[in-house]
Amino acid sequence: MQTDIDPRSLIGRKAFDRNGDKIGTVDEVYLDDATGVPEWAAVRTGLFSRDAFVPLEPSKVVEDSLRVPYDRSLIKEAPDFGVGRHLSPEQELQLYHHYGLDISSPAPDRDFGRLAGEDPA
């Protein structure tokens, strides 16, 4: 993910899958608690007003849209945790597994998935 992008600027952008099919619109951006780097985007898919979490790494911002390098069907099958809340370490690990991403073992007390604009606790 381009780290020079303001995470709030992603909200409202259209998101597309690896084939160029529209997934939906970015609803929220979640930051890594330890680094402050944008890590996940919640994309409103339009299916029953559901948000699907997508990883921002290795996604790219192209022109005015977010390009996610996964098939639309995989994205729509992502675990649904709702939006507006902090992602627990267990929820984030479920997302990593869903997308087949490799993650080094986090420290047991590490928090994940702070919302952009949310103050760290």
TrEMBL record:
Q: Which InterPro entries match?
A: Bac_photo_RC_H_C, PRC-brl_dom, PRC_barrel-like_sf
Domain PRC-barrel residue range list:
8-74
Biased composition regions of type Basic and acidic residues, renumbered to the chain: 108-121
Q: Region labeled Disordered — which residues?
A: 102-121
Source organism's superkingdom? Bacteria
Read off the SUPFAM superfamilies from this record: PRC-barrel domain (SSF50346)
Name under which the protein is recorded: PRC-barrel domain-containing protein
The species this protein belongs to is Streptomyces albidochromogenes
